[in-house]
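Here is one chain, start to finish.
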Amino acid sequence: MTENLITYGIVILIGVLVVFSFTIGIEKMIKIILGNYILSSICLAASQSMNLAVEAMKKTPELSLMGFSYEKIANFLNNGNMTIVLILYIILLLVIFRTSKIKITLPDDEAIKKMLLIIFVPLTVISMILTLQIAILGINGISISALSSVAQMVSSNPYMFWFVSLTPVRLLLHGIVTILITSEFKIKVQTDI
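Its structure:
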């Protein structure tokens, strides 16, 4: 029963992301796709940094920082790692979405714009799901051994099993397709400086 609820939740999330992607337009979709590659790295680095800090603090639990013992700080970081990284991801995605200075020049032909919209919607949804997976699971989101253990937990649901198992392939294919498609556009970065 729980696995079916997870599957329904993922389907609803994908539906919401598809509707969101259609409404924001091609330029913002490209910003989100490019931003998600940067955010994936930031989420991985933040998660691993917190893990390193926890390990360092556990070696000297009697020390304190601003009245909190290292043991309490380590427990907080260890228990809240996923939540902290997820909040960081959402905040940085909003910053990229709202304040990015990347200008994208698209073709003037309306038929090509409609075709690009159809192509970029799945790319945007996949990039957001992959980055959310990395934000939630940390390094386990791309580790083959961790993915196989997660896939075994949901092995009774074949859709979830393949969804989890094929994460590295989706990441690779998504990156290649995004590079091929966006290489045809003129992207320039302008700053207010």
